[in-house]
Specification:
The chain is an alpha/beta fold. The chain has one domain (about 10-165, about 220-275): Vaccinia Virus protein VP39 (Rossmann fold, 3-Layer(aba) Sandwich), CATH 3.40.50. It is about 40% helix and about 25% strand. The strands form three sheets. It has a seven-stranded mixed sheet, sandwiched between helices. Helix 1 (about 15-35) runs antiparallel to helix 10 (about 260-275). The protein is globular, with a radius of gyration of 19 Å. The chain starts with 8 loop residues before the first strand and ends in a 6-residue tail after the last helix.
Length: about 280
Amino acid sequence: MTRRKPPFDEIGYWSEIKLEIIKEYAAPYSRIMSAQQHPRLQHVYIDGFAGAGQHVSRTSGEIVAGSPTVALEVDPPFTHYYFIDIEATKTQQLEQVAGQRSDVDVFHGDCNKVLLEKVFPEVDYKDFKRGLCLLDPYGLHLDWQVIAAAGQSRSIEIFLNFPMTDINRNVLRRDPEKTRTDQAERLTRYWGDDSWRQVAYRSVPGLFGDMEEKTTNEALAKAFRTRLREVAGFQYVPEPILMRNTKGGPLYYLYFAAHKPVAAKIVRDILSKYRNRARP
């Protein structure tokens, strides 16, 4: 009888860096929140695409702690933890990671629905609750409504994966007429509307009149950063860090968005340390 392997995803170098970034921020975040007494705050950790709690390093082949495990090891601990994943095998593994802890809720389902209906309502600013939320999809699997709800809450900070690989591979064709409607709708759902079209393409003179030309990843990232501030309502959004593959190609931008300047300063310092870090 073949023993079933745990549902651990294999991750690359930059995913390990991302986990280090989360760890380096979660610790001071929890210390600051735990120290505040007037009023006393409750602070929670939220993971919308939590995975199985562990990964396999593509670099070393070793087991690497995933973001839920990283969060559970933070000292002082968060008041509560919410882990969500759409794959049942992964939530089953997360339940084993959580064990009998009463401060952990594991949800099997679409995080877009779970966050809006079950988790974010528990992090009410008026009730002196605050949250750190990781939204780390592999592709365009996130609704703008979730991002906007976090921004408008005033109580929830986010780390956010803006998936350039999926966007470039499936949506932003050199000729926009060749983009499939369903793929364009995926980016519209993530972006919040179809204004991404005006950012991703520009009109240039051609032999037979004006034609649409694709712009740059940087232009799209800059516009999305502006949306996080001006549309979602986050007051502080440091410049994101671009994660690349082994050939230097763009994988995703990692954003941080918050409501307090001290949070932005801490993350800005952390990101600056990793921004130009070369592969080992």
